[in-house]
Amino acid sequence: MALFNATRLLGKTVLVTGASSGIGAATAILFARGGANVILIARRAEALKAVSDACTTAHQESGLVQGGKFASVQLDVSDKAQVASLWDKVPQELRNVDVLVNNAGYVLGVEHVGDISDEDIQGMFATNVLGLIAMTQLLVKDFKARKSGHVINLGSIAGREPYAGGSIYTATKHAVRAFTGSMLRELVNTPIRVTEIQPGMVETEFSIVRFRGDTGAASKVYEGLQPLTAGDVAEEIVWAASRPPHVNIAEVLIFPVNQASATSNYRGGK
Ligand SMILES: NC(=O)c1ccc[n+]([C@@H]2O[C@H](COP(=O)([O-])OP(=O)(O)OC[C@H]3O[C@@H](n4cnc5c(N)ncnc54)[C@H](OP(=O)(O)O)[C@@H]3O)[C@@H](O)[C@H]2O)c1
């Protein structure tokens, strides 16, 4: 990997939520390749195990001696009690986390206001907003005590622009943007860094989840254009984490070349 200065990641410990698929999985694997240790968090244990195995392979292929310790933690970030007992599930040697990547999140449905189920509303807010805040509270307390650390939050173009059919999801990502911006300002007098990554269209399980398993509807989202891959976004995350300590990448807005906003795109190019 010539894309980032891997020496800055050697032996660092990174915690990635939502590491069982998509952007989180690609991020965990890229950090592993850069010589970091990774704590992988998600609800699906089997999928986590597969990503953890891929991390081991990536680290072995890197030939690096530093890093290479991986812990899979089955945890639902929307469950306060599970977040509170996180450290019980993490091996002692990985408890000094250097980088927190708050990536777990999802969208469900395209229903308009008035027709959205209460369960979907509660679920999206519980994971995308309250889960992210709970994880951040836990880690930033520790970062402050150790006077170092980096929080990288997955926002979205949906956190900058509302769109029809996305009222709850865009509200959650606007909340992530506000929370991240306030934290950036609060931590200005510390060495702790705060980054928000804001992707446009990325082809992952994201749209399959949105359309409740309908893969046909999910693939239509990307029809006629080349979307970002999970790996494209992972490169931005790892790049932000591997800047020199005095550099803070506050925001990264990243689109496929044929997307210009939440609703502006060109579908004749693929
Ligand atoms: N794909 C896009 O177009 C796009 C664009 C902008 C931003 N984003 C953001 O990028 C992040 C990752 O999405 P993705 O595209 O990689 O989608 P994805 O492939 O569906 O991955 C989502 C991840 O979040 C985990 N997750 C969901 N709820 C969780 C919970 N309550 N507790 C713990 N883990 C949970 C899932 O694992 P389990 O199911 O195993 O728990 C999965 O690993 C999300 O925050 C999303 O909003 C995506």
Automatic annotation (TrEMBL):
Key words of the record: Oxidoreductase
One MF term in the entry's GO annotations: oxidoreductase activity, acting on the CH-OH group of donors, NAD or NADP as acceptor
All copies of domain Ketoreductase, residue ranges: 12-205
PANTHER family linked to this entry: ALCOHOL DEHYDROGENASE
Protein family (similarity comment): Belongs to the short-chain dehydrogenases/reductases (SDR) family.
Top-level division of the source organism's lineage: Eukaryota
Record's protein name: NADP-dependent 3-hydroxy acid dehydrogenase
Keyword Transmembrane part of the UniProt annotation: no
Keyword Oxidoreductase belongs to the record: yes
